[in-house]
Amino acid sequence: MNTPDFSDLQEFMDEWGYADAHQRLNKRSNAELSSVKRFYDAVVPRLEEIIEFLNRFPVDEIPEEYQRLAYMALAACEVDDPVNVWNSSELTYNSNAKDWRVKKSFYDYVCE
């Protein structure tokens, strides 16, 4: 099984490959749109290749060395609307994502 070379995307894996959805949201919300577009333009043309490669593994058994690749691919999908629809890294008529807090469960009233 040949492993494709994704080394050209390493900077984006380091910058956008967060396992936590809240971290990815904060990254996008705090980034300049030009930075988001640069990321999007670099990764999206390779998404099919990345997904085809990652599909070799069950989703909960992706080897550790490819997890940042998987999270980066997910982040690329998550920035599609900001790049192609909103033309902004953040919605201006929505609550500020920077103020959101992560809850431990649905029933938590107090956020950390």
* Number of separate strands: 0
Compute the average pLDDT.
Answer: 89
Number of helices: 6
Which segments are poorly predicted (pLDDT under 50) over 5 or more consecutive residues?
none
Task: Give the amount of beta strand, in percent.
Answer: under 5%
Q: Quick one: overall form? A: globular
> What Rg is obtained from the alpha carbons, in whole angstroms?
15 Å
Main sheet makeup: none
Distance between the termini: 44 Å
Secondary-structure element string: HHHHHH
Structural class determined from secondary elements: mainly alpha
Number of folding domains? 1
Q: State the helicity in percent bands.
A: 40-55%
Describe, in plain words, how this protein is organized in 3D.
The protein has helices at residues 10-16, 21-30, 33-43, 47-54, 64-78, 80-86. The model has no long low-confidence stretch (mean pLDDT 89). The protein has 112 residues and is mostly helical. It starts with 9 loop residues before the first helix and ends in a 26-residue tail after the last helix. It is globular, with a radius of gyration of 15 Å. It has one domain (7-99). The longest helix has 15 residues, at 64-78.
